[in-house]
Design brief:
single chain, 397 residues, alpha/beta, UDP N-Acetylglucosamine Acyltransferase, domain 1, nine-stranded parallel β-sheet, six-stranded mixed β-sheet, 5 helices, 41 strands, 13% helix, transferase, Trimer_LpxA-like_sf, nucleotidyltransferase activity, acyltransferase activity, acyltransferase
Length: 397
């Protein structure tokens, strides 16, 4: 069986505020992580990832570790910016391509990981022109905002595939619309819940809880052991062990994050271990109805999207009542409160107004460990080392 390795190319390594703390394969795209999508498409379990050097100690849940030394001949290298559709691809191919670009390649010969170290090597350079090439359906993430921009399209494609694979249960909720609703055995749907499938399918995974007086609007995915409650949850991909209260729309919650109070969040992306203080509210539409500009490492750029809220980096935290402007980037580990922050907040910023102080690294790691322990996750030595490396890189210290 060929080992599968996900590759962060140079573009993927600019996908801030997430690239500082995680490889692109561990981002949620549509209902599932990119890694999970590749594993399903190729019927393989990922053996590792090739990413930026500061992620060498990355450790998280069931994620594979960074690949080292040499990738063996016949290993499959997949571009982590490509999110395959949830269908089995041709297992006998040596090259998989979409939209005229190579999405994955089976190596003809052993490949030193060092050749991929800076992300500039294109997979086309590794493909044998005589190799058997097969098409693979999916979505290229050309920019970091594409995860939000393509969310509803991907959910509409994902949920009718995921749903029938689950063991169903009777739920008793009021169901509207004609799209399918899939509630996995072991989920808890309380009375007075409305599952509105008028615009798309709904999937609620085992151990998830949907509390009374919640309206879940499809297409929507609620991950394992997550809690959603008391407002409208529309067109979202909510990962595992998340807490979501108050209105949220067209947003991705990577997992293990808290939006446990009132406050609107729209067209946004919450990384892992994010905590939003009560009343935190994002703007996702300009008063001019024009397209939204977003900070990137290459400068502020026009996204072409009319709707875009906030990208919250891993471990970011907001104070109560914080308001966030359209197209805000909140860096990993940032802890901001009181006044509306600028549209680009540096990683590990701390304070009530710009210019911010820098979050002390020892205090940050200690708080991260405590937050993770609340969800029965231990921050190990490797994970702590990676967070320290991210802090050093993000703060220039």
């Amino acid at each position: 069986m060929s080992p599968l390795h996900l590759y962060d190319d140079a573009r993927a390594r600019t996908f801030e505020p997430f690239a500082l703390t995680r490889p692109a394969g561990e981002l949620r795209a549509g209902a599932l992580l990119v890694r999970q999508r590749w594993e399903q498409a190729l019927a393989l379990t990922a053996a590792g990832f090739v990413g930026a050097p500061h992620l060498a100690s990355f450790e998280e849940l069931d994620a594979p570790a960074a690949s080292t030394d040499v990738l063996p001949a016949r290993a499959i290298v997949a571009n982590a910016r490509f999110a395959p559709a949830l269908a089995v691809a041709d297992p006998d191919a040596d090259v998989w391509a979409c939209d005229g670009r190579v999405a994955a390649v089976r190596l003809r010969e052993a490949l030193p990981v060092d050749r991929l170290a800076d992300g500039t090597l294109e997979l086309e350079a590794l493909a044998d022109p005589q190799a058997r090439t097969a098409p693979i359906r999916g979505w290229w993430m050309q920019e970091v905002w594409d995860y939000v921009g393509q969310l509803t399209t991907m959910l509409a494609d994902d949920l009718p595939v995921i749903g029938p694979t689950l063991q169903p249960m009777y739920h008793g909720a009021t169901v509207l619309g004609t799209h399918p609703v899939f509630v996995e055995a072991g989920a808890h749907v309380e009375p007075y819940v409305v599952l509105d499938a008028s615009a798309g399918a709904i999937v609620i995974r085992r151990e998830a809880t949907v509390q009374a007086f919640t309206r879940v609007v499809g297409p929507c995915y609620v991950g394992q052991a997550s809690l959603v409650t008391a407002d409208k949850i529309a067109a979202c991909a909510i990962g595992e062990v998340a807490r979501v209260h108050g209105e949220i729309s067209t947003s991705i919650v990577l997992g293990h994050s808290n939006k446990a109070h009132d406050g609107f969040v729209g067209h946004s992306y919450l990384g892992r271990w994010v905590n939003l203080g009560a009343g935190t509210t994002t703007s996702n539409l300009k008063n001019t109805y024009g397209t939204v500009a977003l900070w990137t490492p290459a400068g502020v750029r026009d996204t072409g999207l009319q709707f875009l809220g906030t990208l919250f980096g891993d471990h970011a935290k907001t104070g109560i009542g914080l308001q966030l402007n359209t197209g805000t980037v909140l860096g990993a580990g940032a802890n901001v409160y009181d006044r509306m922050p600028p549209k680009a907040v540096a990683p590990f910023a701390w304070g009530g107004a710009a210019p911010y102080d820098t979050y002390d690294v020892d205090k940050f790691v200690d708080v991260a460990a405590r937050a993770m322990a609340r969800r029965q996750v231990t921050l190990g030595a490797r994970g702590a080392a990676q967070l320290r490396a991210a802090h050093a890189r993000g703060t220039g210290r």
